[in-house]
Amino acid sequence: MKRLVLVFKILLGIVPFLPLFVDAIFKTNIRMSIMDMTMQWSLLIKVPILVMCISAYLYFWYVIFKEVKKSL
User: Fold this and answer.
1) CA angle 8, 14, 24 (to 5 degrees)
2) Which is more confidently placed, 57 or 27?
3) What's the domain range around 17?
4) Exposed site from 7, 20, 27, 28, fewest CB < 10 Å?
5) How many domains does the chain have?
C-alpha cells in the first residue's frame, strides 16, 4: 500500500510536465498557446501564480522524499 501511495505521489509530481510531454509526443503547440495567453497577463497576476506553483511542486517532492526516507 505504501508503494502504491508513493507511485501516486510521483505521478502527481509529473503532472506539471504533461503539456511538455504532449508537445513532444504529438508535435502539437500547446506550450506556445499557453505562453501566448499568459503573456497578456500583468506581473501582479503572473508572479504570485508562479510562486504558488513552484512552492506546491517543491512541497510534493518534499513529501515524496520524506516518505521514501521513512520507508527505508
Assistant:
1) 140
2) 57
3) 1-71
4) 27
5) 1
